[in-house]
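Final report, closing paragraph on structural work. Over the funding period we assembled a curated collection of sequence-structure pairs, and we close with a single example.
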Amino acid sequence: MSYKLSCPMLVSTALAALLTTASLTAHASVTPDRTRLVFNESDKSISVTLRNNNEKLPYLAQSWLEDEKGNKITSPLAVLPPVQRIDAMMNGQVKIQALPDIHSLPSDRESLFYYNVRE
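Its predicted structure, as stored:
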């Protein structure tokens, strides 16, 4: 059994596939300066720069940390400030600060935490 595809049908199928793929991309207005953060044992804090890429509107950026299971944490690291306003085309800075109980983390292996930003 053979099928014949007409040119208009082939073009419309390709266009539908292209539009479906294009709609799956996300465009965030507030973006961090990097995707991986490494907090060394000797560090007291690290900074992350957030950029508002919107040309007209300010955004509120909420930041928090989660453990490897997706649970929000408040210790042994803290995000300061947890919420901040970032004006259009401007930068904001977030500080991830070690708390006194940072020494409760195991010293013989790495610990994993996820840094989250919501606009």
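The first helix runs from residue 7 to 22. The radius of gyration is 22 Å. We thank the funder for supporting this effort.
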